[in-house]
Give the backbone structure.
Amino acid sequence: MLTSLRKRHGLYFAAGAVCIVVNSQGLGPLWYAGVLLLALGGLLRWDLWRRQRPPQGQEPVQVAVPVAGRWQALNGPATKIPSHTHSHAQTYAIDLIHRPHARTAPEPRRLWPFGRRPESYPAFGAPVLAPGDGVIVAAGHRQRDHLARTSLPGIVHLYLEGFVRSLGWPRHLWGNHLVLKLDQGTYAGFAHLKRGSLRVAVGDRVRSGRTLAECGNSGNTSEPHLHFQLMSGPDSELAHGVPFTWRYVDDDGAEHTGVPEDGTHFSAHATEAQRQV
């Protein structure tokens, strides 16, 4: 019961906001009800966030890089923890943007255009790969790929839209997504996938390196990219984040085991790339 209440914190917050906005009687029952619902929604959200703080001392799980080619790391745990937030098990999540040498992405503009079509970005349609053997336990594929937010008005829209999305269900933030239960017991989450690109379904068993879907621009995202994270369970509202480690090569050819820092351009280690062929 309490778990269900915590997971629906956004509904209480939204209901409280509506009560206050439509209230025209000043300090009265409707206003007080709105304040109470806002406080309840905020308290439930804080409690859920607190419960999703991962335990200390977790050993990173070795997985394969879930993409092929040259990518750039952003908002990753090598730079700060939590990399995103503890909510939705995002403590150790990372964002990956495709940066091939042969193609560049559109530059952001100050005011116009408001946004660009996702097809303008190299990441859109790039294959998303299984980082290990496992079974698909959750999938969503019907959300649209919206315009990339490439201007200041677009970024403002993104933050307002992100707040509204955060009041809903996880799929409103994740967009089209997959959750893969890895054989070692952790769960890999993939968000912002391209609509209609999923090549697996719930219950499918996959091998490391198999193409699962394509990178898209669905959910709470500013431009096409892959959001990747490991979790302790299949439900992102109840699980906690799990640290992971990759084998990768940077632009100077140096080999690493770990997670690339923000801004690092990298590709999968040669042995991992061979498994993806």
Observations:
- The first strand starts at residue 61 and ends at 62.
- Residues 29-51 form the longest helix (23 residues).
- The chain has six helices and 16 strands.
